[in-house]
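User: Need the bound-state model for glycinamide ribonucleotide:
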Amino acid sequence: KLKAAVFASGTGSNFEAIMETKHLACEIALLVCDKAGASVIAKAEKYGVPTFVFDAPDKATYEKVIIDKLEESGISWIFLAGYMRIAGPTLLRSYEGRILNIHPSLLPAFPGVDAIGQAFRAGVGTTGVTVHYIDEGIDTGPIIVQEKVTILKDDTEESLKKRIQQVEHQLYPKVINQLLQSK
Ligand code: GAR
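Assistant: Bound-state model below.
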């Protein structure tokens, strides 16, 4: 089975959704996390997924360390799931075309942090979820799939977030499986 790593910085609800997927086309063999104490670390431990938590001063150094760890673990794909760092050229070159990201908006609208809040405050009628390949930008790179979420008249930011995350949790594992099975 192909081995993949999830990169995450926070809660890890997308990590959990991936782990709970029956017949996932790959094994999640590593969690990479840049925040000591993030809830996603405890979730990985619950599933018996090895974790690599790092806190390194400069990007070139830490990406080299991460790549060594990925290679040592036999990782061939990377799924970013709430990973709040930009991948640098070192990582991008080593895993070209094999790094996916999920983002809670219809990119190119509302990139960066707090995409759900951004859309809510902008007063748009529709937002959604994007799964895309990454490049050196912030939430840029070729889009694989998008799913729309309507912002309802009585939505709060919280209720909107809940619906968007439900979509994320269905969509990400589905796209991962479709992609890996087509390879
Ligand atoms: C998710 O909504 C994900 O789309 C978003 O962070 C959240 C992480 O939640 N990612 C970005 O905003 C990337 N720019 P989780 O830790 O519960 O999976």
